[in-house]
Specification:
161 residues, mainly alpha, globular
């Protein structure tokens, strides 16, 4: 399945936009995910500065947009749903999430390495333990390069079908 998803990603012709974007398909993505996962918004786990999270054990997607939803919030939905895709495709979840695209392959360099800015990589290094870097690289890149509709399709293929 990972190979199929990697091929589908390559077919999406990824090109990195300059900033987060509001996507008309984000509400549909949330509704689709809510059919398979727990989705909560602005609950007590949302602390100042927290945009969202995905909890493996409870299969819970938490979104923390506050009172005003903006482009960064749409980006967060795509990012956190990508973690759910990673979860569905990880063979041994006891070891934690695994990237969908195998690191240091041609596919990884084409899809992830070429679209990951040094600024984003540095922020990930400052914000996450080293064991999380690869899944975060991938989630940040996928959130910024795929549309909500494309991520919804990957979620359905990986987690629903």
């Amino acid at each position: 399945m990972k190979r199929f998803i990697t091929a589908a990603l390559a077919a999406c012709s990824i090109a990195l936009p300059a900033t987060a974007t509001v996507q008309p398909g984000t509400l549909s993505l949330i509704k689709t995910v809510a059919g398979s996962l727990n989705v909560v918004m602005n609950d007590t786990s949302c602390t100042p500065g927290m945009a969202g999270s995905y909890q493996l054990l409870t299969k819970t997607l938490t979104l923390c947009p506050g009172s005003d939803v903006d482009a960064d919030d749409h980006d967060t939905v795509r990012h956190e749903v990508w973690h759910a895709v990673q979860h569905c495709l990880t063979e041994d979840i006891n070891k934690g999430l695994e990237p969908v695209v195998t690191k240091n392959t041609d596919d990884w360099w084409d899809l992830i390495g070429s679209n990951l800015s040094l600024k984003t990589a540095a922020w990930i290094h400052e914000s996450y333990p080293k064991s999380h870097w690869d899944v975060e690289y991938e989630a940040f890149v996928m959130a910024s390069t795929l549309t909500s509709a494309q991520i919804e399709e990957m979620f359905i293929r990986s987690c629903v079908d």
